[in-house]
Amino acid sequence: MRIRRKRRIVRSIRKSNELSVVQNHTSRIRPGDILVVSTMRNEKIRMPFFLRYYRDLGVNHFLFVDNDSTDGTLDYLAGQPDVSVWHTRASYKRATFGVDWMNWLQRKYCHNHWTLVVDPDEFFVYPFCDTRPIRALTDWLDNSAIRSFSAMLLDVYPKGPIDAVPYQEGQDPIEIASWFDSGNYTIKRNPTYGNLWIQGGPRSRIFFSDEPKKAPALNKVPLVKWDRKYTYVSSTHTLLPRGLNQVYDDWGGEKASGILLHTKFLDTFTAKAEEELSRGQHYAGSAEYKAYANQLKGQPELWCKWSEKYINWRQLEILGLMSKGNWA
Amino acid sequence: MTVGIVMLVHTALDRAEQVARHWTSAGCPVVVHVDRNVPRATYRAFHNALSNDPLVKFSKRHRCEWGMWGIVAASQSASELMLDSFPEVRHVYLASGSCLPLRPVQELIDYLAARPRTDFIESATTADVPWTVGGLDEERFTLRFPFSWKKRRFLFDRYVALQRRLGVKRKIPAGLVPHMGSQWWCLTRQTLSAILQDPEREMFDRYFRRVWIPDESYYQTLVRLYSSNIESRSLTLSKFDFQGKPHIFYDDHLQLLRRSDCFVARKIWPRANRLYQAFLTDQAGAMKKTEPNPGKIDRIFAKAVERRVKGRPGLYMQSRYPKHGAENGITSNPYSIFEGFAELFDNFEPWLAKATGARVHGHLYAPDRVEFADGQTMINGALSDGAKQRDYNPNGFLTSLIWNTRGERQCFQYGPADNQEINWLIARDPNAQISVISGAWAVPLFKSNQNFADLRREAARLQKIESEHLGVLRSQYTKARVRIWTMAEFVEAPMEPLQTIIDEIGHINHHRLTEAPTLVDLDGFGQFLQNLKNQGMHPYLMGDFPVEQELVNMPKPARKPYLVR
Question: Over the stretch A8-31, which tens digit does the pLDDT of each residue have?
Fold first, then answer.
């Protein structure tokens, strides 16, 4: 495992050659700042709300890798004071789906910082997020000697066809995609890395109903007090060293955990699915996108009678999707 | 006469300064002890900021570490300074930098003035307190602890183990009875000076220097020697979680803290602006005068600890995934499994739903699809009826189903033709009520119109599966409420068992069952079994079914369904 971790680190350093700096404001990062790291491609429309959401939570600085966007994402980001951004034309797939780039950025700039790694369509929800800033959480985690914090991916989707309501720049995507599946998740333990492997939700229900094994993984550990010795292995699902994956209690208790609201399913999705399919840059030969493209032609409605409408974190807590743990 | 505040500070100095000024503005002198670990520059700035206040003094700095002697040394130096410099002080209140006064200081002064001889300090013998970290209670006083528990855990553990092995037992100084309690106390000048000026203090100090977490036992023990009037409770509201760390208060606790009626609360998050604003202004005087009573807050923090330690039974999620045997509730709610009933009775499911008010599913584990109640294709939590989805994780499917339908009793049919993966899960689950009519799977075969060779093969297969299933249900690990009848037994007197099961589900009617389900026509079933036997396949799970009764030369009873009354 140590060798695997070292190899990851070496790889990320090698892959760092592919990144060229566009705007580097990292000198503005103060000790104790909370950072967001993200990779994206053609997500300009999502950026204004994304930045606002995380600034409101109390994130101090953003580190972005732009994978050759053509919609002006780069220009938009380069104008922001609390953003550092790198650009690359290299293959997303061959950078282990962006993980190598991010590992390098994190190793270089996030050492000793609480670091949140999220995609532009993921919104972090944690216990008491409506009354306490994210620093209250990280201070509490520090206090409790906890290094990593779990947040399962929860797919949210609109009622009706997913392209019925167009998303406007700056809009809260939860206004459109406000429904989710509350209780059809399956969990397995991954003995190699000690993390849980969670599948389910609407993607498994509709796109992978005959091959649930191939459904995308939903377990994520996005918030980590980063150390330059740490590394993500596959997306933010798995970390090394393995102790960081122990975000669950196996003696019956509940550790504190959050949710990443995954607002993938907006009207922008259909076009995105087609583009990604032609680029073939995603996991498992883009099997996921192939499945989407097939299904989306027929029945582009994810909503069903038993969908739940998102209200707040307390609702997710009661449903058992996340937990306060002993944070009160 | 007034109360003096001894304040131990190590972080968030700006907040400490704010609180210190709050105390002094009400005329209470403050002696501040700043941890030696705080950088010199930070300390100097803090010192300068408060130096213009004549009521604030700084004591000699010690290095403080959790569980070690430094904290006691700090409070000793600060208390001595307090008693020497401010002769008008009658009570000394030990507080930390993250403590926040919840009620007007004047109220505290009045409260203490009315009890001039009372020492407020939580002090209980070791046998009587449950809150010990690391499983050490008695041994705190009889072993030596030179190593930090937080920083050098390995050495700490090794050294404890070694001392245990060697049978080391320190002698507790004569006259001392070890007591423990919250480290935040409020003592009278008389008691405190008696402790600090004791001729034997050096000996006591030497002893407590190697006791573990002396700040929770030094004053608590010594106070028993001198105090004439101990009120064994802390005036500081402080809640601890399961690891012995104090819970932290945030802005959203404002209403909770207002209702607490305690004088001082800790620990406050340094950035909880609203709390500091609300409680450090004078208008806090609006609060009513009552005896301190932290009980109202207890519940919320006790619940948080329970959530962390025990969790919600039957929940499997990203941060709760109990290992085998540590589930604390395999499922969240009671449910019932019926095996063989739907085969033996016509329309058993609607009948059961009517009799119990529960949700009655068909065979949830049928090979082709999940037979949800009323032919639905999906159920609570968007759990769908696809057999592949279910069979990907059959155990998870059941626990999810029971979790999703909390508050509504679930019943389902089960049998040897179904997916058998959940065998051990349901057998180990005390929430499961399993009723089996063994051998009833033969009835559909008997009724079907297949070739006898196929029937025979199928019967052999089902019998083997069911016999394994029954083996699991009869194992010593089984915690479920299991009832097993052979088909022959059941058919003889079906009413009584049914009544028992329904009563146990205990939903709507507690009176006798009035309407019974209709038994299927079993005419010729005995012969069918006999035929199987004749073919060399011995169906034994049905029990001794009366074959003879059906023999041709017997007078045949009038043809009617077995109607049970």
Answer: 888 888 888 888 899 999 999 999
**Rounded mean pLDDT, A146-150:** 95
A204 Cβ contact partners less than 8 Å away, ≥ 6 residues apart: A184, A212, A215, A216, B389
Name the residue in chain B with its Cα closest to that of A183.
B381
Distance of CA A304 to the CA centre of its chain: 25
Task: State which residue of chain A sits closest to B273, comparing Cα positions.
Answer: A132
Q: What pLDDT does B552 receive?
A: 39
The reply to whether CATH 3.40.50 applies to domain B335-550 is yes
Residue for token pair 């550092």: A84
Residues of B (229-268) whose Cβ lies below 8 Å from A: 241-243, 245, 247-248, 250-252
Compute the mean pLDDT over every residue in chain A, rounded to the nearest whole number. Answer: 90
From chain A, the residues in CB contact with B380 under 8 A are: 182-183, 306
Range of the domain at A28: 2-318
Residue A180 resides in a domain: yes
pLDDT of residue B550: 44
Q: List, for residues A95-122, the tens digit of each pLDDT value.
A: 888 899 999 999 999 999 999 999 999 9
Q: Is the pLDDT of residue A136 over 90?
A: yes
- Which residues of chain B does A306 touch, with a Cβ-Cβ cutoff of 8 Å? 378-383
B133 touches chain A (CB under 8 A): no
Nearest CA-CA distance, residue A89 and chain B, Å: 35
Chain A residues within an 8 Å CB radius of B320: 248-249, 252-255, 323
Residue owning tokens 């216990």: A127
In a domain, A53, yes or no: yes
Q: Residue A103 domain-assigned?
A: yes
Q: Which of residues 62-101 of A touch B (CB under 8 A)?
A: none
Chain B contact for A185 (CB, 8 A cutoff)? yes
B34: helix, strand or coil: strand
pLDDT of residue B240: 79
Distance from CA of A260 to the nearest CA of B (A): 12
> What is the distance in angstroms between the Cα of A194 and the nearest Cα belonging to chain B?
12
Percentage of the residues of chain B whose pLDDT score is greater than 90: 53
Distance from CA of B195 to the nearest CA of A (A): 33
> Strand, helix or coil at A185?
strand
Domain-embedded: residue A227:
yes
What's the domain count of chain A?
Answer: 1
Give yes or no for residue B560 having a pLDDT over 60. Answer: no
Most A CBs within 10 Å: which of B238, B254, B316, B319, as the mutation test of the A interface? B319
**CB atoms A257 and B317 under 8 Å:** yes
Q: Would you state the pLDDT for residue B512? A: 65
The CA distances from residue A244 to A231, B64, B420, in Å, are: 10, 30, 36
Residue B500: is it exposed, middle or buried by C-beta count within 10 angstroms (0-12/13-18/19+)? exposed
pLDDT > 70: percent of chain A: 97
Calculate the alpha carbon distances from B311 to A51, B82, B321, B472 in Å.
Answer: 35, 46, 10, 28
Q: In this complex, which of B242, B250, B317 lies closest to A136 when CB atoms are compared? A: B250
Q: What mean pLDDT is predicted for residues B426-451? A: 92
- Cα-Cα-Cα-Cα dihedral sign, residues B71, B74, B79, B80: positive
Burial track A58-78 (b if 16+ CB lie within 10 A, e otherwise): bbbbbbbbbbebeeebbebbb
The pLDDT of residue B96: 92
Q: Is-contact B372 B385, C-beta < 8 A?
A: yes
Please provide the size of chain A in residues: 328
Residue A75, classed as helix, strand or coil, is helix
Picking from A139, A183, A212, the nearest residue to B392 by CB comes out as A212
